[in-house]
Amino acid sequence: MATLYPPYCEKFGWMMDEKAAEDMRARNEARVAELDAKIKDAEDNLGDSEVRDAMLAKAEFFAEVGDRESALAAFDACEKKTVAIGQKMEMVFSVMRLCIFHDDWVALEKQIAKLKDLLEQPGGADWERKNRLKVYEGVYKMARRDFAGATSLFLESLSTFTTYELMTYDEFVFYAVACAVVSLKRTELKAKVIDSPEVLAVIDNIAGGSVRDMVNSLHACKYREFMLAFPNAADAVNKSTWLHAHHRYFLREARVAAYAQYLASYKSVTVASMASSFCVSEEFIDAELSNFIVEGRLNVRIDKVNGVLVTNRPDAKNALYQSYIKEGDHLLNRIQKLSRVIDL
Questions:
Q1: Mean pLDDT across the chain
Q2: Less crowded by CB within 10 Å, the N or C end of the chain?
Q3: Residue 301: beta bridge partners?
């Protein structure tokens, strides 16, 4: 990966080995010359299919060594020689992996749209590729913090997963469960994740079982166990390739889900009781809830004098009534303004 070596040295403060860099470039140039010779031989002595295969090998080599610009140009040239829809789709998958490696999510979105268009063309309907696309699109949504969309796509792919070029099945289940914890309701979490045979088959192997303990204890309302398992599960999220950037968001959303679930069971509860349930100090709970209340994430009021938390459940019907009144007044005001214009 001679193309990536210099910028990585600059990024991480490494001392670049000029001799090693020159050696890598020389080896790459030799390999490219060899591939160009195969392309020339195919053009002179073989057919279009062999030419296309030789061009694809060159494009895949550029992708393998991290030379993104050369790889994209080579894939584009190869696509012009490709007739079969299936082969075109495989090249799009290769370009998508290149986009994911370089964290280019804007380009990945365009490639997803391109692949969906190919799937709609005559001869493009392929269930295996459609299922693989769901995983790629799920990774895109997860990286863009659309956890609800990613969860839906990942859960649909649990029983049809074949995208081993991106991740192992254990890693895939981890991503599905992590996204589900912060996006699904408690009943859906039970039906779609906790009781899923595909999840049950591997969840014990993920992060030393901490992810299993976290999701099961959250559903079972065992908040002490949840808080004990949560740090290890959060560490796994922090070490994840695509969830690392959303580590703080995951920490916040998972805690909000647990706090809201606990408070939904009470009209009022003491701070000491909640702190004991979550195996933390009263000061910690007070600070946590204060932040979430200010952000409008929890419907609860803290009675600091009596050390009590008073839940304030929103009245959906009353809120809808108030909304209708407000919108009705706005409409009447606009009608009155319009009538004055018409009278003039």
A1: 87
A2: C
A3: 310
108-109-112 Cα angle (round to 5): 85
pLDDT single digits (tens) 234-256: 999 999 888 999 999 999 999 99
pLDDT in tens, 57-76: 888 888 888 888 888 888 88
Q: What is the largest CA-CA distance in the chain?
A: 90
**194: which DSSP letter?**
I
| Whether the Cβ atoms of residue 208 and residue 230 lie closer than 8 Å to each other | no
Question: Domain spans of the chain?
Answer: 1-20+30-109, 142-240
pTM higher than 0.70: yes
Digit-coded pLDDT (tens) for 200-234: 999 988 888 889 999 999 999 999 999 999 999 99
DSSP 28: H
| Burial 23-60, CB ≥16 within 10 A → b, else e | ebeeebeeebeebeebbeebeeeeeeeebbbbbbebbb
CB 24 within 8 A of CB 3: no
The mean pLDDT value for 85-100 works out to: 88
Q: Comparing C-alpha atoms, which of 285, 312, 273, 316 is closest to residue 296? A: 312
Burial 244-260 (b: 16+ CB within 10 A, else e): eebeeebbbbbbbbbbb
Alpha-helical regions (H) of 121-246: 127-143, 147-156, 169-181, 186-189, 197-202, 210-219, 223-239
Let me know: does 37 contact 44? Beta carbons within 8 Å.
no
Q: Are 263 and 269 in contact (CB under 8 A)?
A: yes
pLDDT at res. 315: 57
Among residues 252, 254, 258, 234, which one has the least CA distance to residue 244? 234
How many Cβ atoms from other residues are within 10 Å of residue 169's Cβ? 16
Identify residue 78 by its one-letter amino acid code: C
> Do 237 and 250 form a contact (C-beta atoms < 8 A)?
yes
**Helical (H) or strand (E) element with 300:** strand 300-303
Identify the H or E element spanning 308. strand 308-311
